[in-house]
Amino acid sequence: MLIFESPEYFTVASTIDSNFNSDTAGDRTILNPAGVAGTGSAVYGLDKNGNRINIPGSSTTLLNTVVAWVPVNPNARYIEAGYGAIATAGRNTEPTRPIGNIDFTLIKRFQVGERLRMELSGEAYNLFNLNPAV
40: which residues sit within 8 A by CB, 6+ positions away? Predict the structure, then answer.
């Protein structure tokens, strides 16, 4: 039996509560359409003089001095939305790997006399260990 399933999609989330709604889940990311697929990047803050600000947790004092968020890797497809930034990535934008399996069953039935039957079988699942790359 041959089974092929197209990939499922999942939502890429930041590790921080960028919209300050106090939930424990991270919010969505900022989508960089020109970025390398499957990559993500953290961000750091800049103050009005262009100095780098690293935010430990959500220190309100430091957050008030940030005027811009800059990605550590500008070539990433998904950029973490900094505190107060508006996330632009939609839901279900990143695909998982597709599934490609070949399952094989071999059965031999024997008649032993008039009343008895015997069956030998062997099964192999994911016979060739197919794992198509995305």
Answer: 12, 29, 73, 76, 77, 78, 79, 80
Domain count, the chain: 2
Tell me the per-residue pLDDT of 87-132, one tens digit each, with 9 for 90 and over.
888 889 888 888 888 889 999 999 998 899 999 999 998 888 766 5
HSE of 128, CA atoms in CB hemisphere, 13 A: 10
Separation of alpha carbons 68 and 52, rounded Å: 10
Residue recorded with tokens 């919010």: 27
Asked, for residue 1, whether it belongs to a domain, the answer is no
Residue 104 included in any domain = yes
